[in-house]
Design goal:
The chain is an alpha/beta fold. It has 3 domains: 74 residues; 240 residues, Aspartate Aminotransferase, domain 2 (3-Layer(aba) Sandwich); 101 residues, Aspartate Aminotransferase, domain 1, CATH 3.90.1150.10. The strands form 3 sheets. A 7-stranded mixed sheet has the order 2-8-7-6-5-3-4, with helices on both faces. A 3-stranded antiparallel sheet has the order 9-10-12, covered by helices on one side. α5 packs antiparallel against α14. The radius of gyration is 24 Å and the shape is flat. The protein starts with a helix and ends in a 7-residue tail after the last helix. The relative contact order is 0.13. Bound molecules: pyridoxal-5'-phosphate. InterPro entries: PyrdxlP-dep_Trfase, PyrdxlP-dep_Trfase_major, PyrdxlP-dep_Trfase_small, Sep_Cys-tRNA_synth_arc, SepSecS/SepCysS. Homodimer. Interacts with SepRS.
């Protein structure tokens, strides 16, 4: 690599580190030690740029970086957007993206047997093995989003007219995966606490058998759902599925990458996770993992032979359509993986911060939490009809006054204009930022005449 290109990359990487430090600091401000690190990084970037610009005919890095439409939302603000929180890239992933952003870059060193999960440079094969271990399963494949994991499983197990059990809070992509395979969904109803239980799942299975004469072919349930982020009885459901000898798909879109997940201990046949939702990875990315038993079926290799040419593609896996994530998406997953693995061990702290924030929000008279409480997750659905919405009723900006107030305090990501029921996520915020967030909500409440219990 020429010195110039190498320097350009160095500068871009250093800039990413600066952005990373920036993300940590705003809007609550730097601690002195952080500030020193920040200034040092800036000096490094400047030195590299000066070096580059001193060279003849060197493209200015500032110009290259400047031509990218930088999205500053998460650099400059606390972002409480409900579904982006754990998908935000690490600095390492951002650097990987710069390096591997071009097309098939993962495939530079693809050698026989010509399949993504066999590539050893960069260490994609090893990453697959690590991923399987990470979720307590035997085999893993990367997929373009959790939805493609569902699709691979339904493509394997569901025939026309077959029934699949999902929850009454299932994500739409689960419905589509079943429909795509020609099946039909049957939803397990929620109990009075908005929880899917093992017992209700067993009842639904019996109901399907009584009505159709056939047992469902798959039970697919979310550990935490996307509407309330309530925790469902995943172990009991896994047990029930096995009692009926029905394979169980554990949807970990909101768990894999943020909390420890052990698929086998849960009794899952398949574990699905979402890279862009919970693994600090570029979209679309995700993981499908399975037990040894399912390998020959779900990851069956092609037997197709060209009728004219007699061509065969032997090792390519049908449900994966051969290979899946072939560039920056995969490398971003890999680059974030060490951080992701480590952060799952700190899940309890995340939950504590979530509870701290919701506890403070509930001190604003008229506010309610619609998710189970105390929280077991950082994503929460709240109801502020009795608090912030009472102000919106007469405010000239209606519900947007709350967004205005929040954004002026460096907080973004709430559903703009919504003051009744809405969702937020505190994942990844430091103690300091969560305190700042809670103070900001209380301050806005008091400013608009709402009572706040001290
Ligand atoms: C519970 C749940 N499952 C699955 C998905 C789909 O995930 P992906 O976007 O990775 O396909 C989502 C997306 O929002 C979700 O909330």
């Amino acid at each position: 690599m020429s010195i110039r290109i190498q320097k350009t990359f160095e500068a871009l990487f250093a800039l990413e580190e600066v952005r990373g430090l920036f993300r940590e600091s705003l809007p609550t401000g730097f601690d002195p030690a952080e500030e020193a690190a920040f200034r040092q990084k800036i000096a490094e970037v400047k030195a590299i740029l000066a070096d580059l610009e001193a060279g003849t005919g060197t493209p200015k890095v500032t110009k290259i970086a400047g031509s990218i439409d930088l999205r500053t939302r998460e650099e400059e603000a606390i972002n409480i957007q409900p579904i982006q929180a754990a998908g935000r890239l690490t600095t390492e992933a951002r650097k990987a993206l710069i390096s591997y952003g071009d097309g098939y870059s993962t495939c530079d060193a693809c050698r026989k047997p010509f399949r993504l999960d066999k590539i050893s440079k960069p260490g994609i094969a090893e990453f697959h093995a690590d991923l399987a271990k990470f979720v307590g399963m035997d085999h893993a494949r990367v997929v373009p989003g959790a939805r493609r994991g569902f699709q691979a499983v339904t493509g394997t197990l569901v025939n026309k007219g077959d029934t699949v059990i999902v929850s009454a809070l299932a994500h739409y992509t689960e419905f589509l995966a079943v429909e795509n395979a020609g099946g039909v969904v049957r939803e397990v109803p929620l109990n009075d606490k908005n929880i899917v239980t093992g017992e209700a799942t067993a009842q639904k299975i019996e109901e399907v058998k009584a009505e159709t004469g056939k047992f469902p072919v798959l039970v697919m349930i979310d550990h935490f759902d996307y509407q309330f982020a309530n925790e469902h009885e995943i172990k009991e459901i896994g047990k029930v599925a096995h009692q009926y000898d029905i394979p169980f798909l554990y949807n970990g879109a909101y768990t894999v990458g943020v909390m420890p997940v052990n698929g086998k201990a849960i009794g899952a046949d398949f574990v699905v996770g979402s890279g862009h939702k919970s693994m600090a990875s570029v979209a679309p990315s995700g993981v499908l993992a399975m037990t040894e038993e399912w390998l020959p079926k779900a990851l069956r290799t092609t037997s197709m032979v060209g009728d004219l040419t007699k061509r065969k593609f032997g090792i390519k896996e049908v449900e994966m359509l051969g290979c899946t994530l072939m560039g920056g998406t995969l490398l971003s997953m890999m680059a974030s993986f060490p951080t992701v693995k480590a952060r799952t061990l700190k899940w309890e702290e995340e939950v504590q911060r979530s509870n701290y924030f919701i506890g403070r929000l509930l001190k604003i008279a008229g506010s309610r939490v619609l998710s189970e409480y105390p929280r077991k997750h950082t994503l929460t659905k709240v109801d502020t009809t009795g608090s912030f919405d009472t102000v919106a009723q007469t405010h000239k900006r209606r519900g947007f006054y709350l967004s205005d107030e929040l954004s002026s305090r460096g907080i973004v990501g709430e559903f703009a204009g919504a003051t009744r029921t809405w969702k937020l996520n505190t994942y990844g915020l430091s103690d300091k930022k969560v305190r700042y967030l809670a103070d900001a909500f209380c301050e806005v409440a008091e400013k608009h005449g709402l009572a706040v219990e001290k």
